[in-house]
Fold this sequence. Notes:
The structure holds 2 protein chains of 2 kinds.
Chain A: E1 5-7, E2 10-13, E3 19-24, E4 31-37, E5 44-50, E6 53-57, E7 65-68, E8 75-79, E9 88-95, E10 106-107, E11 111-115
Chain B: E1 5-7, E2 10-14, E3 19-24, E4 29-37, E5 44-49, E6 55-58, E7 61-65, E8 71-76, E9 85-93, E10 103-104, E11 108-113
Parallel strand pairs in B: 2-11
Antiparallel strand pairs in B: 1-3, 3-8, 4-5, 4-9, 6-7, 7-8, 9-10, 9-11
Amino acid sequence: DTGVSQDPRHKITKRGQNVTFRCDPISEHNRLYWYRQTLGQGPEFLTYFQNEAQLEKSRLLSDRFSAERPKGSFSTLEIQRTEQGDSAMYLCASLRDPPGANYGYTFGSGTRLTVV
Amino acid sequence: TQLLEQSPQFLSIQEGENLTVYCNSSSVFSSLQWYRQEPGEGPVLLVTVVTGGEVKKLKRLTFQFGDARKDSSLHITAAQPGDTGLYLCAGQLMTTDSWGKLQFGAGTQVVVTP
């Protein structure tokens, strides 16, 4: 169990540029979630995958955001035409289905995005 | 508006003191989880409670789920500097389409000084 890996850890980009983040979940976990966390707040749900199928998207996920999980393995989150309001920590989490007795997310370390 | 309200927002105590963090909602949850997060890192799961009235202990940490499944508390006995961190509660709503999606509180920042 190597945990959930996210890449990059930090990203600084100019407003208007596109960025892409990658998440590698725990291999036997078929559920994958993306959350966004801003300073002083708890994580907010963005989207969810069951294997390769994207089953739910939050209204927070505007048309500039797209997420994929090809082949039900790693996932990517792309933000097009970044805005300063997109600056946040983007967290990926995975979960086994069905969950075990003390189930809960395994989070990655996150990608800190700063839009200047 | 967050479904889960955590209090207090910030707590600073001396090593050896006890503390309690609260997590309240008007919504009913099928389960509730507590995480601890350190700066620049993702949250780490501490415990999951699923039964109303349930109490779970993890060394010096005691977690309680309210009878009505709307609230929870985390109590730390004899706090140590290593307990410093942001404590987040997160609940899964009792709706069929929740898909394991969690609602998070804003967190309680705990600082334990030697």
